[in-house]
Amino acid sequence: MPRNLRELREWSRSYEGKKLIRFTTTSLISTFISESLILITYGFKIIPGEIQATLFSNVVAMFPAYHLNRRWAWGKRGPSKLRSEILPYCGMSALGTSFSLIGATYARHLVHSHHWGHLINTGIVGGTNIGAFAIFWVLKMLLFNRIFRPGNRPVRAKHSYRAQRERTAPGG
After folding, report:
1. Are residues 88 and 145 in contact, defined by beta-carbon separation less than 8 angstroms?
2. What is the pTM of this model?
């Protein structure tokens, strides 16, 4: 892990750094899509139930997230493989959606046990979805990083700060 800004900059240019940045960006985009859909569908009472709005929004956001992750973060091209790509991704997405539904159940309890306005209720439903995604994101990132390795690409870091330091070190 980088210890200072210079090493962080060099790490962000490495293969692993770029992959993590791309994965994080696609996760943020997916979260933005699901959150927007929750705020629209629940906020405008298109889908009046907290749990149903959360489920709908997360399932819809799963499709662009898969394609963004597959092409951009994992560098995969060609047809998707059912057993090695689609099923693990759907499984993790279902797990993440289930985690969000736990938050939606809690939000439903809060909404129905208090008499707040619909705007506050919408914020609670959206906030629990964001909280669930934040908690679940780390697990998902670690697992997907292990499953979807695009091959043994070399990390081109011969000009990195650490590599330069090792070359100039005595005995190196």
Report:
1. no
2. 0.75
